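Reply to dn_fold:

You asked what the input looked like. This is it:
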Amino acid sequence: MLIVLLQSLQFLLIIMVAYLFKKIKLLKATDGIVLQKIILNLTLPATIVVGFNAVTVEPILFIMISLGLLSNIGLVMIGGFIWRKKDAPDQSLMMFSQAGYNIGNFTIPFVQGFFPAAIPYIGSFDMGNALMIFGGTPLIVDKLTHQQRSNNNLFRTFIGLFRSPSFTTYIIMFSLALAGVVLPENVLSVFQLFSSGNAFLAMFMVGLYLDIQIDLESLQKVVKLLLTRYTLGIGLALVFYFFLPLPDIVRLSLVLLALAPIGTVATINIITYGTERSLSSFLASVSIIISLILMTLALVFIL
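and this is what came back:
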């Protein structure tokens, strides 16, 4: 338990230091773009390689992919129902704020220090999650809100996923695992070198992007959105942990995923569908802090 608390405090410290650097103008929020490129193209793929290497492909990995899909579909539909009487931008805001998990830039860095063995399960869930946030969720939002802001169909969405280095790495490592190919230690050590910096860079990027300024009206809206998201998230976590007949490490992974913050792509979609950037940035920032607290508490109570 002490290790979990110390690790979480370290993450919080990194976030606060990055935020301080931004406030004293030593760095700018736009510097986070550079870190994001390094993470998405180098350290995160390396972490996935290390986590998936020597994994035995079991039916449970396909179950995790399905859960990633179904969780998103269920939550976006619930979000649409809750604010069904609102105008299209607000209904879209509720839907995007409920579905989509920040896994690559937050959840994987969070767990890689505690449970590196959980990365294959979390990564498999993320494959289903990615299919939704990059195309599936906007299609549902368009249908329920009678808009046509998304130009994608499911086929185009799937092809577009391969532009994501992390998703491509998932597919490559999944294929190698299916073929029984294991990377030798001297090759794996190179990937471990880069993956070792992933957690620090990801949390530092979070701090640079942290935005805690907002007007009162928008604050009230954010409170409703996050209260809904984490009420549903805690309920989903309880179902995952107490009712699914899965191994302990898989159920623990699902609990952490259910409590994960709003996905980066989801916050971009929120802006695309008519919500002010300031509200979207504040929503994402507060979501990360809440998720860090809830995920830490979950580990403390479960372990």
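The mean pLDDT is 91.
Hope that clears it up.
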